[in-house]
Amino acid sequence: GAGASAGAKANGKGKAQKSNKKEDEEEEEMDESGGSESEGDDGNESEGASEGEDGGAAAAGKSRRDRSALEWLFRQMAFHARTELAFDRESTHKRDAALKFFAAMSTSMGGAEQLEPLLPFIVTTIFRTTESDQTQHELRDLAKQVQDLLIATVGSTVFFAHLNRARGEIASTRQERKRKVKEAAIANPAEHARRKMARNLKKREARRTKIDKLRARSGKLARKHPSADDDDE
Questions:
Q1: Sign of the C-alpha dihedral, residues 114, 120, 126, 130?
Q2: Which of 25, 69, 103, 141 counts the most CB atoms within 10 A of its CB?
Q3: What is the separation of C-alpha 25 from the centre of its chain, rounded to a whole number of angstroms?
């Protein structure tokens, strides 16, 4: 009887130990499972953050490229307007196109913050167009219209700050050019005289061309509107 009782106790103790071991194993499995799920969540969050950072960097890079391309376009328009004023004053096509382009972009860029970094190109073109005595009236009026549009967009304070800066830079460039011409005249008088003669000849040719154009235009008007004496005949 005592042996049977001892055996029963041993069996019960063994079952309890097995049950406890099984429960421990299940808890370990649950812990491992929970840990892997947590690690998976952390990994997903990390991947999401990484994707967000990559997307932000890509958007910033695209914005910089767009800004760079737009700045290049504005610079080219200002350059062609300046070269036309310097070498072909009789023509107005490039300056007219540049001013109209600047006006269109000023109304479509969405405000002063986007437009202000590009103001130097626009303001310089406006200043060069309006300050020249040889600028045609229609072109001068167009430049003033663009100026009014810019003032309404960015404000008079910002606009005139850029205008004063452009005026100072242009004046400085002209003074530097005159200084170099004087130095060249002293260093090489014969070359300076040759250049001066060529420049005067070019001015004379331009003046003659202008007179011929005015005469041709007057002749067309005369043919289109004959005088009263011609009617009487």
A1: positive
A2: 103
A3: 67
Q: Output the six-digit token pair for 83.
A: 């070269």
Assessment of whether the complete model's pTM goes beyond 0.70: no
Both tokens assigned to 120: 């130097």
DSSP string for 77-141: HHHHHHHHHHH-TT--HHHHHHHHHHHHHHHHS-SHHHHGGGHHHHHHHHHHHHH-TTS-HHHHH
Q: What average pLDDT does this structure show over 59-77?
A: 79
DSSP character at residue 133: T
Q: What is the DSSP string of 10-74?
A: HHHHHHHHHHHHHHHHHHHHHHHHHHHHHHHHHHHHHHHHHHHHHHHHHHHHHHHHHHHHHHHHH
Query: Residue 37 — pLDDT band, cuts 50, 70, 90?
Result: very low
| Distance from C-alpha of 211 to C-alpha of 195, rounded to nearest angstrom | 24
**46-55, 74-83, 145-154, 209-218: range with lowest mean pLDDT:** 46-55
Q: What is the pLDDT of residues 139-196, one digit of tens each?
A: 999 999 999 999 999 999 999 999 999 999 999 998 998 999 889 889 888 888 888 8
Cβ-contact 173, 129 below 8 angstroms: no
* C-alpha angle 209-211-214 in degrees, rounded to nearest 5: 110
Cα(97)–Cα(39) distance, rounded to whole angstroms?
Answer: 62
What six digits make up the tokens of 182? 């004087």
Q: Name the token pair of 18.
A: 């097995």
* 49, HSE (Cβ side, Cα atoms, 13 Å): 6
